Fold each of these.
Amino acid sequence: AQTVTQSQPEMSVQEAETVTLSCTYDTSENNYYLFWYKQPPSRQMILVIRQEAYKQQNATENRFSVNFQKAAKSFSLKISDSQLGDTAMYFCAFIPSYNTDKLIFGTGTRLQVFP
Amino acid sequence: EAQVTQNPRYLITVTGKKLTVTCSQNMNHEYMSWYRQDPGLGLRQIYYSMNVEVTDKGDVPEGYKVSRKEKRNFPLILESPSPNQTSLYFCASRDVLAGGPTDTQYFGPGTRLTVL
């Protein structure tokens, strides 16, 4: 079965510090997409970062970066210089192949950034 | 403004009373999906559509119907709602380019449904 596991239900970090959110997934496919989504209290789903499985280079978007380990099926999110506005639920997700819109989500990690 | 709209945003209904949640996108996207979000379970895909008249089941399709008669609209139909369908529902859409689906999935604002 294709699944996504986020083993940290809740995390907290002090403003300006760095935090890493964990994600592992399971698939037998070789080509797929990986994503991190942010859901603030407004409930809006916001794409934070994405990674194509065939690319070895880790994706970065400003303060957000990933550590993609394909062999280990791991896709962690690092948030540097954490800001109060980063407080949200974070979901790891993946599309298991190129020819589907089947998007599989993890159960989420609630991140609290405190001053 | 590129957006996905859902209506209604909030709905309280009773068991067995048929309802439809509408979803519309103005970006001419080919792919559209419906998800439900429940505490501790994340988002689970209900149905998705890769083009007009093409729909497929996601992970939790039981009790739901969809249709895709026009590219912009993808309504979610609950023929006989039950309390276990109380949830937060999201519609989403994304484009398809020559190289495959794009990465950016646009989500609607969500519909909070309560079935009594």
Amino acid sequence: GQSLEQPSEVTAVEGAIVQINCTYQTSGFYGLSWYQQHDGGAPTFLSYNALDGLEETGRFSSFLSRSDSYGYLLLQELQMKDSASYFCAVRDASGSARQLTFGSGTQLTVLP
Amino acid sequence: GAGVSQSPSNKVTEKGKDVELRCDPISGHTALYWYRQRLGQGLEFLIYFQGNSAPDKSGLPSDRFSAERTGESVSTLTIQRTQQEDSAVYLCASSPQGTGPQYFGPGTRLTVL
């Protein structure tokens, strides 16, 4: 089976930097994704890491270490609109290998 | 272009009734997924369609749940004899080939009284 762990809540102030960690256990591994979901909204794709290292997309960066089964999402220059839930998700070798298994989500609150 | 659409946006039903939820994926996307999200929780995989291949039904929680997809177009998720624990948001997503980002619809909020 597979499992993911991420913090349930993170709070930070506007303009700050925040890191949301995700550790996973999978039977085989194809990649780690991050999705953002605002209250009442649909999840939207943020980033994907298949290989070790840092991927940068504007204010958001995502990191993966396959040897540590660990990744993180880094949000810089936080804005109020970044308040949302952030989910890590893994694609692994179980089942059809096309499934995404999602973590329980991290609720990010950005304070003024 | 249009994104993934789902209908209805909200559905309230009585325990024991059957419900049918609809998903229109992005045109040209061969992969389609259904997820369930209970309040304050993550997404729970239900079923995956890829082109004309047999669907991956490994996430369906019971035989009351079923889904169909016609070719690479519309999909319907049917829940028979609904129970209160079926209350959740049901999300549909599609992707071009099944290996890239998934694009989610707005979901159907199901409430079983």
